[in-house]
């Protein structure tokens, strides 16, 4: 539950702004301290005084108004925030956040804050579907910002569609779900990203992993109160804050670091895309093409199977979760892997489907348990799938 936190609520110019008054009240009722930052457009709908009276805090609207000469208000607010909520978030503030634009109090403070950010969009269906907004929301997600799905319903324009700002109670429930602490005191190791197997100093063998799924899992486990160690290879998205990060390059390094971290951990979620083979010999200089080498063969040797190695020594109270990335015979292959690697759960996904494969923002998986039980998930964002995996892990641990 989201309680006893210092929340900065960023309110922008959407007609749904009236619901933010209720959201502010509900957050305060749960023991949070709420400070509001408003854009100029937001103030055309509602006076800052209304939020001030509700929150009993000064409402920030202008970056150049400094009431306290001893501090800089936007930096102080940014630093003094446990959780940043942007609600309602217009297409404009989303575009600014995605591009690092800081041209008013809200966007400048948001750029300066390191607190976890939760965006609740509100806009017309067509604005939401515009490729620029789609791109900006994807960028926010890649930057580790959590975005709530808009509701489908009657819009202020008089027709029905998505883009509707959810009801304040729904927003509160959604926010609460990120602040449950079922994993408080637990040590969780998550691996993410792809490995690189060196051929020579400038070349390597790797794979298409973006690390999005593993990083979303690390964030979800952190939000659930765990001490998270993220062992991470090559990724294309921002690494999360509030977790211990161990960077690796090759599968051999991944094995070493994961083995060390798992020896004192309660659970391991292995989402890294591990190279199964590496060059037998790493050439210490850049391989040159010469007149006599029209063909080049690189002999590969098998890498150790990390999960199998750890699974064969795991303690009864330790939980191990693996992934099965398959292009064919998904369930059959995944079932073989859960047994072979001695796992408690395997998350099977079809990487031949471009909507859910490597580098996508969404995923659809089948959870396969040790006892053979299978549960298929909906097609959902990697954040939602990550939360489901962390929920299942909590149940397995408890
Ligand atoms: N994995 C591992 N060590 C390896 C290869 C994979 O620990 N050397 C882990 C992956 O992180 C994943 C699970 O094992 O959690 C399954 O990986 P996947 O690539 O689907 O299967 P493989 O074990 O490589 O088997 P195959 O090549 O037959 O698909």
Class inferred from helices and paired strands: alpha/beta
Regions with little confidence, pLDDT below 50 for 5+ residues: none
Distance between the termini: 19 Å
Give the DSSP E fraction (strand runs of 2 or more residues).
15-25%
Sheet with the most strands, sense and barrel status: 8 strands, mixed
Main-sheet strand order equals 12-11-8-13-16-17-19-20
| Tally of contiguous helical segments | 14
Under CATH, the topology of the largest domain can be stated as: Rossmann fold
Named at the architecture level, the CATH assignment of the largest domain is 3-Layer(aba) Sandwich
Would you mind describing this structure in some detail?
The protein has 398 residues and is α/β, with parallel strands linked by helices. It folds into 2 domains: 172 residues, Flavin prenyltransferase-like (Rossmann fold); 211 residues, 3-Layer(aba) Sandwich (Rossmann fold), CATH 3.40.50.10300. The strands form 6 sheets. The protein has an 8-stranded mixed β-sheet, sandwiched between helices. Helix 1 packs across helix 9. The relative contact order is 0.09. The mean pLDDT is 94. It binds cytidine-5'-triphosphate (CTP). Cytidine-5'-triphosphate (CTP) binds next to helix 12 and strand 16.
